[in-house]
Amino acid sequence: MCGIVGYVGQDDAWPIIYEGLKRLEYRGYDSAGIAVVDDTGALHFRKTVGKVSGLDASILGAAPRGSLGLGHTRWATHGAPSHANAHPHTDCSSRVALVHNGIVENYLELKRRLTASGHVFQSETDTEALSHLVEEGLSLGLSFEEAFLRMGRMVKGSSAITATLQGEDGPICALRLGYAGGIVVAHHEGQGIVASDLPALLPVLEHGSGTPSVGFLEGGEMAVVSRDGVRYFDLDGNAIVKQPRRVSRDDVLVDKGGYRHFMLKEIMDQPQAMTAALRDRADFANGRVELPGFPLPPSAIGALERVVLIGCGTSLHAAQVGRHYIERLAGIPAEAESASEFRYRDPLIGPRTLVVSIGQSGETADTVAAMHLAREKGATLLTICNAEESQAARIADGALYMRAGLEVGVASTKTFISSLTILHLLAIYLGHARGRLDDAATRRLVDELSRGPGLISDLLGEADSYRDLAYRIGHYGNFLFLGRGASAAIAAEGALKLKEISYIHAEGYPAGEMKHGPIALIDPGMCTVALAPNDVLRDKTLSNIKEVKARHGVVVAVLTDGDDEAASEVDYPLFIPEAPELLQPILTTVPLQLLSYHIALMLGCDVDQPRNLAKSVTVE
Ligand code: M6R
Questions:
Q1: I need a surface site. Which of 99, 166, 223, 248 has the fewest CB within 10 A?
Q2: Is 191 in the pocket of ligand 1 (CB under 6 A)?
Q3: 532 falls in which pLDDT band (50, 70, 90)?
Q4: How far apart are the first and last CA of the chain?
Q5: Does ligand 1 have an atom closer than 6 angstroms to the CB of 359?
Q6: Annotated catalytic residue within 2, 312, 385, 527
Q7: pLDDT at residue 379 above 70?
Q8: Are 65 and 36 spatial neighbours (Cβ–Cβ below 8 Å)?
Q9: For ligand 1, is residue 357 a contact (CB within 6 Å)?
């Protein structure tokens, strides 16, 4: 959460930082700001409440010019989105510019002490204490680098912090504390750039040749970036050597591909996302699953006693579907739990437990903390994540990457499909290794999976038809999503999608639970979306649909093609193609995504950047 960009080089810093912030806006968009050091060495600050576009030079009038600066796009934690609380923050003498992503857990204690010694604060943020701490270090006679490092040693909590100083040479100092908030550092043809994520590097890449080498800061590491290069240190000030990594243009490209929104593009990309997740893993010719990256040898799989799947938000819903896959195909007791709950329990896991963390970003603070807990308890740790340079990938014993490409829309779509695909593969792999699935059963399941991308494409061919339905039902103020078995998790995902991008109240419920309470809500003003594809639970869900209709509720139902009986019971039937049962969670997801998208669009909501949210939640 929050995006950071810092630049030092020969070019005008403002447009590079501005472009970089635009590319990081998915991390937060409550306010934004840029500070630039001009040719005389003076610092200039510009801030806006709301999105980064408020910093567009054409809106601002003349933007300050200089070849050193830093910027920030904020997801508010301490203090409302306001001009005063927007980053960069400074000190009493406006010598320092500092931006921050994370939470300073001891900021009140620091603020009290600094205030008592005469520092005057301008904002309600935890961050401002950091710039005053740097100022304090400078007034003790420390160099900027030393003062920055001293500040870093005084801070509690997980944070990414970047700062620069008045005077034309910088440098830019960047520090990562704990495991929240990534920092990537690149140096390319006399230009240094620091950013929260790779896409912010594109403006520098575009003007240079070749690809830069980049360094990813670990917790407790600092980078000092100048025109001459990058130096790395630990928190004690000892120089450290980091292996630079090459990144390609594809790693940094962010492009809507002609679609109106990233979310729509990402929905339409789902056949390719599923294909990429299957590549080199599903051996269609031989009817087998291979999982390079799985952390246990086949001989150890038989000894597993439990699988615990953890994640947050959409990734939690993927975990819930994964639980069904693993119990059904691998015959291993499995459970799915919110990482934010798991991390605060004392879960009974040990060496015979496989913990599977799921996450698009691999940086979600609760998921990363839950992984650390699982590590302490000796479980084998597998991560399914999209971001290959993430914390999750580094902590886990093994990783199965989604390979979905960058997902920019704050609402997760294609990475959900990727997660389900990989969980399905994992369940087949475990089932075969444990002898629960023989070769023939494995071949049949692999053949079924091969149909997935084509079936999703068929559904997407009808994508526009959801617009009409959105106009018919988008005015309902309350939605209840119902499903049974794996469809209960898809119902929860459907409700999450709708509420996060359209701000309509929506609940996802196991259909069998409806009669234990939610049925009291049913009236003509409540729209129920029921998932009743052709599976063993279809008749049960159909009974629930009838219960809703008997109480004059409006029903949209996701059914299997040709199910005229169920269609005649509901107001608005939606159809998925006839498909093997274990592919149905993937297919029933797509109509719910498209419906939410079109309802949000109809209501004039900001589909890609819904209010109050951020793409990666790196605070607890
Ligand atoms: O990066 P992660 O998958 O760990 O993120 C978890 C949630 O924050 C995320 O799924 C969130 O719920 C999405 N906005 C849902 O669309």
A1: 248
A2: no
A3: very high
A4: 11
A5: yes
A6: 2
A7: yes
A8: yes
A9: no
Q: Give me ligand 1 centre to Cα 395, in Å.
A: 19
386-417 per-residue burial string, b: 16 or more CB within 10 A, e: under 16: bbebbbbbbbbbbbbbbbbbbbbbbbbbbbbb
User: Which token pair is 551?
Assistant: 């109480």
Q: What share of the chain is helix, strand, coil (3-state, %, to 5)?
A: 40, 25, 40
Q: Tokens standing for 502?
A: 């359209």
Average pLDDT, the chain: 93
Ligand 1 contact via 528 beta carbon (within 6 Å):
no
418 lines ligand 1 (CB under 6 A): no
SS3 226: strand
**The token pair that represents 401 in the structure block:** 């990457």
Helix or strand (DSSP H, E) at 420? helix 414-433
Q: How distant, in Å, are the alpha carbons of 196, 203, 310, 364, 430 from that of 357?
A: 22, 33, 5, 11, 16
Q: Read off the pLDDT of residues 290-327 as tens digits, 9 standing for 90 and up.
A: 999 999 998 899 999 999 999 999 999 999 999 999 99
Going by pLDDT thresholds of 50, 70 and 90, the confidence category of residue 486 is: very high
The model's pTM = 0.81
Distance CA 594, CA 464 (A): 9
Instruction: Kindly list the distances between the CA atom of residue 179 and the CA atoms of 219, 262, 333, 463, 505, in Å, as whole numbers in the listed order.
Output: 6, 28, 31, 39, 33
pLDDT score, position 342: 95
Measured CA to CA, the distance from residue 219 to residue 235 in angstroms comes to: 9
Q: Is 2 a catalytic residue?
A: yes
CA 445/CA 318 separation, integer angstroms? 19
What mean pLDDT do residues 451-473 have?
92
533: nearest Cα among 450, 479, 590: 590
In contact, 483 and 530? CB cutoff 8 Å? yes
The answer to whether the beta carbons of residues 339 and 310 sit under 8 Å apart is: yes
Q: How far is the CA of 422 from the centre of ligand 1 (A)?
A: 17
Strand order in the sheet with 221-226: 96-102, 159-165, 172-177, 221-226, 229-234, 239-240
Judged against a pLDDT cut of 90, whether residue 462 lies above it is answered with no
Give the mean pLDDT of 215-242. Answer: 94
